């Protein structure tokens, strides 16, 4: 089958509407073979977005939640397979208690509003992070969504919640060390894949594209191992304003880049 045939088959399998296909044809939305399979996003700038509008920071987070819905749909529409969103880092506990409490309620609010539609759209919800310290109501909401979407086969919507990459790697190293000490594995034979299996993202492909909003140019302890060969795309736009078109711009730029993985 030629490239066009394969593309058409993929489009049909994903149930695109005529309108979607027309927008892909005209280039309004990105399409083609090299759509990034895994897009990871550091959703930054909620606080500044709110401040510029004279609103409390939590209003920025609430508006950020709406962007989560928008971007999940947009990512799904262009055929992204995994969307990982950095919703709460292990460092975010340092924020004022009222803000942390608000952030911990957002997954519940989001899922109570959106789970039905996520299920309808065949989305699988996953969570990547340390369950310790997360309030029961947060864990319960996320686990319920994970359970109810476990058999879905479409976009994986992976929330990084209470996630920190150094901690994740340290835990993987400890687990391998325990197995070596117990004589179950030979340290000299540990492969990258063995280490990867013990990361919280185990089983997911590494991100192809990392997006960070709000003009900050750093990784902030996010997927340090997994992003080793990812393409990075930064924008000044604050997360609550991040639109479908911004995502499509990032993906188009990704499609223009040649990934060489250290080769020529
Ligand atoms: C960073 O902006 C953002 C966060 C720490 C929280 C991100 C959470 C959301 C976007 C909502 C998540 C929604 C669900 C459904 C889990 P910031 O507060 O650091 O912004 P600032 O740098 O401008 O202060």
TrEMBL record:
Binds 2 magnesium ions per subunit. Mg(2+) binds at residues 44, 231. InterPro entries: UPP_synth-like, UPP_synth-like_CS, UPP_synth-like_sf. GO terms for cellular component: cytosol. GO terms for biological process: polyprenol biosynthetic process. One of its GO terms (molecular function) is manganese ion binding. It is an enzyme of class 2 (transferase). It comes from the Bacteria. Its cofactor is Mg(2+). Substrate binds at residues 45-49, 57, 61, 89-91, 93, 95, 212, 218-220. Coiled coil: none annotated. Pfam families: Prenyltransf. The keyword DNA-binding does not apply. Belongs to the UPP synthase family. Homodimer. Catalyzes the condensation of isopentenyl diphosphate (IPP) with allylic pyrophosphates generating different type of terpenoids. This is Isoprenyl transferase. It comes from Cohnella terricola. The lineage of its organism: Bacteria, Bacillati, Bacillota, Bacilli, Bacillales.
């Amino acid at each position: 089958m030629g490239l066009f045939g394969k593309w058409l088959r993929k489009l049909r399998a994903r149930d695109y509407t005529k309108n979607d296909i027309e927008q892909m044809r005209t280039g309004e939305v990105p399409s083609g073979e090299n759509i990034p399979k895994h897009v990871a996003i550091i959703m930054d700038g909620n606080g500044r977005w709110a401040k510029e509008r004279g609103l409390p920071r939590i209003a920025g987070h609430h508006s950020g939640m709406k962007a989560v819905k928008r971007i999940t749909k947009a990512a799904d529409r262009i055929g992204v397979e995994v969307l990982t969103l950095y919703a709460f880092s292990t460092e975010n506990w340092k924020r004022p208690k009222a803000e942390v409490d608000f952030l911990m309620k957002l997954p519940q609010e989001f899922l109570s509003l959106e789970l039905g539609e996520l299920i309808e759209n065949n989305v699988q919800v996953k969570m990547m992070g340390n369950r310790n310290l997360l309030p029961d109501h947060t864990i319960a909401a996320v686990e319920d969504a994970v359970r109810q979407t476990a058999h879905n086969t479409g976009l994986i919507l992976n929330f990084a919640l209470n996630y920190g990459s150094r901690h994740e790697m340290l835990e993987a190293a400890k687990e391998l060390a325990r197995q070596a000490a117990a004589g179950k594995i030979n340290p000299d034979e540990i492969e990258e894949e063995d280490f990867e299996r013990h990361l919280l993202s185990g089983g997911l492909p590494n991100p192809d594209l990392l997006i960070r909003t709000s003009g900050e140019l750093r990784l902030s302890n996010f997927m340090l191992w997994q992003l080793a060969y990812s393409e990075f795309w930064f924008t000044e736009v604050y997360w609550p304003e991040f639109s479908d078109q911004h995502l499509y711009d990032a993906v188009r730029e990704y499609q223009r880049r040649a990934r060489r993985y250290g080769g020529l």
